[in-house]
Amino acid sequence: MTPPPGPYSGASTLALVARASAFSFGLVYGSVKLKILKMKVNSRNKAEAKAHH
């Protein structure tokens, strides 16, 4: 499997670090987004429950 040509090509340390940091940033961003979405859903559910009673 050869890396595509461009800034991330080659097995240089900089390319590996850039790829790893981008990957970890994606993971963190995704988990934060999920937490916010869950919080929004929970608060909406609580508001609906109050309205129904």
Automatic annotation (TrEMBL):
Keywords: Membrane, Transmembrane, Transmembrane helix. The chain crosses the membrane at residues 12-32. The keyword Membrane applies. This is ATP synthase subunit e, mitochondrial. It comes from Populus tomentosa (Chinese white poplar).
